[in-house]
Amino acid sequence: MISLTSPVETRAHGWPAGAKLAALCAATVVLFATNALLWHGVFLALTLGLYALPGALFLRTGIVRLRPLWIFAAVILLWHLVTADLRAGLVIVMRMMTAVALANLVTMTTRLSDMMGVVRWLLTPFRAFGLRTDLVELAMALVIRFTPVLADKGRMLALAWRARAVRRLGWRIITPFAVLAIDDAEHVADALRARGGL
Amino acid sequence: MERSLTLIALFAALIAALGLIPKFTLGFGVPITAQTLGVMLCGTVLGARRGGLAVLLFIALVALGLPLLAGGRGGLGVFATPSTGFLIGWPVGAFVCGLIMERSRRLPVAWAAGIASVLGGIVVIYVFGVAGLMRALDKSALESLGLVTAFIPGDLIKAVLAGLITAGLARARPASLLSRG
Q1: Nearest to B76 among A107, A181, A192 (CB)
Q2: Is A156 domain-assigned?
Q3: What is the pTM of this model?
Q4: In this structure, are A101 and A22 located in the same domain?
Q5: Does pLDDT of B30 surpass 60?
Q6: Domain total for chain A?
Q7: Same domain, yes or no, for A148 and A51?
Q8: Which residue range(s) make up the domain with A86?
Q9: Per-residue pLDDT tens listing for chain A (198 residues)
């Protein structure tokens, strides 16, 4: 399964994931602590500078991942243009872009296995309350394994629909799709039980 | 135990897969992403606890950096966008969906699931979503709600579909409808 970790190897890939997450939390607190336009300009410039460090490809990937934000930015700027308070609008938009860009940065420089390590560490205290963390990890692995499997089955269903129907793909395809998921779940449950259960 | 775990995992995978299959259109040509429909189904099929856990599992994997949201989005950045409140509301929405489903055994499955989807899958999720917008965009509740009213009709249609699909699943796989089991 493809993850969003950047294929461009950066120095930050080797840093401990927990430290990067803690730094992200601290940075977000700082972002929400100030309303000064100048500071937010500096923060955004610094963040883009971080993206530029590993090279042009990394920077371009990072900027592409900010694209879903443009609609929010447009609405906010338009709004504040009407209320004649463009300064406040710019602060909101820049804060939003910096916050998302920094969070994306952590995701791009942290491998899935390292993230899983943080989750395991965070869940450890809950073992005292009877949480079986091994089951959480098994469930995560099952989702990662079965998402492409189910997606393939969904595509086959869609092809079968197109072969038979004149009309476009409709909601009726969801019921057999969910039945496939349920059947897979029952089979995997049987398989787990046959191997000694949980 | 094994069944609960695999159903939770497979429904989380179902939400992800619903974002990957080609978009389908409603009768009058409005394309919709089916992922929130998947959230409603988690609640109406698996019940409150398992449904909520399935969606929570999905959200956790998105946060870890898997591109499971429609359009291949994912990672921690998603939780910094203004619309993140909706995402945070998903597990709670599925839980409420399942709770209503479990408490309305006298109603026919389709009706119960439809009502549960409106209350859990729309009202609860929008409360979280609007709260998130208020915080991120520095706007009042009504202004924030105004930004997202365009999505409410589509979500109402999804709630109706969730009711019909749940009824279909109750006929096809009655033993797996854990919310009524």
Answers
A1: A107
A2: yes
A3: 0.89
A4: yes
A5: no
A6: 2
A7: no
A8: 11-123
A9: 567 888 788 888 889 999 999 999 999 889 888 889 999 999 999 999 999 999 889 999 899 888 888 888 888 888 888 887 888 889 989 998 999 999 999 999 998 888 888 988 988 999 888 888 889 999 999 999 999 899 899 889 989 988 998 887 788 889 999 999 999 999 999 999 999 888
Q: Would you call A13 helix, strand, or coil by DSSP? A: helix
Are A117 and A141 found together in one domain? no
Specify the fold of B2-180. Arp2/3 complex 21 kDa subunit ARPC3 (1.10.1760)
Same domain, A117 and A83: yes
Contact assignment for B71 to A68 by CB distance below 8 Å: yes
Burial zone of A43 (CB within 10 Å; 0-12 exposed, 13-18 middle, 19+ buried): buried
Do β-strands B31-32 and B24-25 pair in parallel, antiparallel, or remain unpaired? antiparallel
Chain A positions in Cβ-Cβ contact with residue B41 (cut-off 8 Å): 174, 178
| Residue indicated by tokens 């443009």 | A70
- Distances B101 to A34, B97, B124 between C-alpha atoms, Å: 45, 6, 15
Nearest-angstrom CA–CA distance, A27 and A111: 21
- The residue ranges of every structural domain in chain B are 2-180
Query: What are the two backbone dihedrals, phi and then psi, of residue B67, each rounded to the nearest 5 degrees?
Result: -80, 65
Chain A within 8 Å of B181 (Cβ-Cβ)?
no
The reply to whether A148 and A83 lie within a common domain is no
Q: Which of A103, A140, A197 has its CB closest to that of B77?
A: A103
